[in-house]
Amino acid sequence: MKGVVLHEGKRYFMDLLEIIKAINNKNLDYNWFITDTECYPENDDIDTIFLKKYNWMSGRQLQAILNVENFKWEWAVLSAFKKDVELKEILEYEFPCADVYPGFWDNGISLQHPLADIEIIPWNGSATFVISKDDAIVDEFIEYFPECEDLESYNKRL
After folding, report:
1. Where are the domains of the chain?
2. Phi, psi of 31 (to 5 degrees)
3. 111 φ/ψ angles, rounded to the nearest 5 degrees
4. How far apart are CA 158 and CA 155, in angstroms?
5. Sheet strands side by side (includes 30-39)
6. Which domain of life is it from (predicted)?
7. What is the mean pLDDT of residues 26-43?
């Protein structure tokens, strides 16, 4: 499992469409459980969607929303699940949280939700974390954003 962080001041550090492009549009291969959301869409219909405690949507639905408006995400955890994982299984666990999860900061990088394959975490409007069970996804992200930092190396400096 690998993780990376893209900091404030780096290109596209909070642009979710670019983040998805950086993982080679793998979002379409998954369903997404989106929690702990603080975001600022100008479109009222989109704003209403993300006022809920959680959202469950396909990668295509997420892509369609972002194609309407690529808004700013201040906080969120976007957890990707294989399409055969059902929402009722996901709801058996605690909801991922953007702010207090120690798996970002401790080496031994981990995903918050045990059934997830990828997590994208806009964090405090100043960084985006990408963590994946599939190292190739993180490697694609690093290739797209060479200025991002390996999360384990970043944590060692803290």
Report:
1. 2-157
2. -100, 150
3. -85, 150
4. 5
5. 54-58, 30-39, 73-82, 118-123, 127-132, 2-7, 149-150
6. Bacteria
7. 93
Q: What pLDDT digit, counting tens, does each position of 74-116 carry?
A: 999 999 999 999 999 999 999 999 887 656 666 678 899 999 9
- CA 86 → CA 31, 53, 92, 127, 140, distances in Å? 9, 18, 11, 30, 27
- Three-state DSSP at 16 gives helix
Helices (H), the chain: 16-22, 44-49, 59-68, 87-90, 135-144, 151-157
Cα distance between residue 49 and residue 45, in whole Å = 7
CA distance 75 to 53: 13
What letter represents residue 68's amino acid? V
